[in-house]
Amino acid sequence: MDQPVLRELQCLDSRGLHRMAYWQWGDAANPRVLVCVHGLTRQGRDFDTLARALQHAYRVVCPDVVGRGCSDWLADPAGYVLPTYVADMVTLLARLDATVVDWVGTSMGGLIGMAVASLKGSPVRRLVLNDVGPVIEPAALQRIGGYVGQAGFWRTLDEAADAAWALSQGFGPHSREQWLALTAAQLKPATQDGVEGYAPRCDPGIAVPFRAITPELAKAGEALYWQAYDRLECRTLLLRGAESDLLSAQTAQAMSQRGPRAQLHEFAGVGHAPTLVQPEQIEVLRRFLLAP
Predict the structure, then answer these.
(1) Most buried among 3, 77, 108, 239, by the most CB within 10 A?
(2) Main-chain dihedrals φ then ψ at residue 230, nearest 5 degrees
(3) 8: helix, coil or strand?
(4) What CATH number is given to the structural domain containing 52?
(5) Distance between CA atoms of 54 and 80, rounded to whole angstroms?
(6) Range of 167's domain?
């Protein structure tokens, strides 16, 4: 299968129901399921290259977290918080009807995965945390806060790709073809002042709760994330961009020594966060996920 099937389900929120879209690769009857969840401003098509590589072994499911991609935008932006995302993923897991799942989560998607995997009776068997942990460095919060929620309009895909690359140097080296593919799924057709072009598939409202994070709230969140991490019983792989400003080397080392004692792998020449499209990155995941 060269392209995924787009599916959707209804999830509950404080104002009623919202629709969450997800992209499914591979045999829909395969009981072996891999869930891949993206970062704060991204969407499920980020995992196309990884899904193509693993669809022979898995049914690969890549949701568009609410407010992103082809999913609905929330009526109340205060709902763009981890408990909402975790509840949506629990609804998704029920739809998938899988007794066990493996999980790959990039940044925000890793925090969601950690929370789901820490629940009593969780079906998560193997967990990949891509450049994220219980401690989010303040410098990264400040950097992300500088662009999250910004609206945009670009006349061409190339123009949009250039603008995105200016904010995404941490993703590491990419070919132009790779970067255009990562950019295209981020966009939807739009018209501005009679000119046709592209706009982001991301609700600017996701910035509302993000920008409300104070140092005190961040510190309280760290304690809760460490509690969740220490409860993990699944095999865990921690990926880190060696130049990451979000996941420090100190936090990564601590994660390898407590809780599930994550297996740590660093990618040289990459910051926050590895996109998992490069062959060497996919091979690390393949070895971990498909090991007996």
Answers:
(1) 239
(2) -70, -20
(3) strand
(4) 3.40.50.1820
(5) 30
(6) 150-201
The DSSP secondary-structure symbol of 209 reads H
| Per-residue pLDDT, 216 | 87
Query: Do residues 245 and 121 share a domain?
Result: yes
pLDDT at 72 over 80: yes
What's 68's DSSP letter?
B
Which residue is it, tokens 């006349």?
Answer: 155
Contacts of 193 (CB under 8 A, 6+ apart): none
Q: Tell me: cis bond preceding 166? Omega within 30 of 0 counts.
A: no
According to DSSP, residue 46 is labeled: G
pLDDT of residue 66: 98
Please, is 250 exposed, middle or buried when counting C-beta atoms within 10 Å of its C-beta (0-12, 13-18, 19+)?
exposed
Name the amino acid, one letter, at 254. A
Buried b vs exposed e over 227-236: b needs ≥16 C-beta within 10 Å? ebbeebebbb
Do residues 196 and 221 both lie within one domain? Answer: no
Q: CA angle, 188 as apex, 204 and 62 as ends, to 5°?
A: 80
pLDDT for the residue numbered 115: 98
With 80 as the cut, is the pLDDT of residue 250 above it? yes
Same domain, 267 and 229: yes
The percent of residues above 90 in pLDDT, for the chain, comes to: 87
H-assigned helices in the chain: 48-54, 82-96, 108-117, 138-145, 157-166, 176-184, 207-211, 215-231, 249-255, 279-290
Q: Contact, 128 vs 239, CB < 8 A?
A: yes
Integer Cα distance of 20 and 110 in angstroms: 18
Around 222, how many Cα atoms within 13 Å sit in the side-chain half-sphere? 13
CA distance linking residue 213 with residue 208, whole number of Å:
9
Task: Residue 253: name the closest of 243, 270, 271, 240 by CA.
Answer: 240
Quote the number of domains for the chain.
2
- pLDDT at res. 132: 98
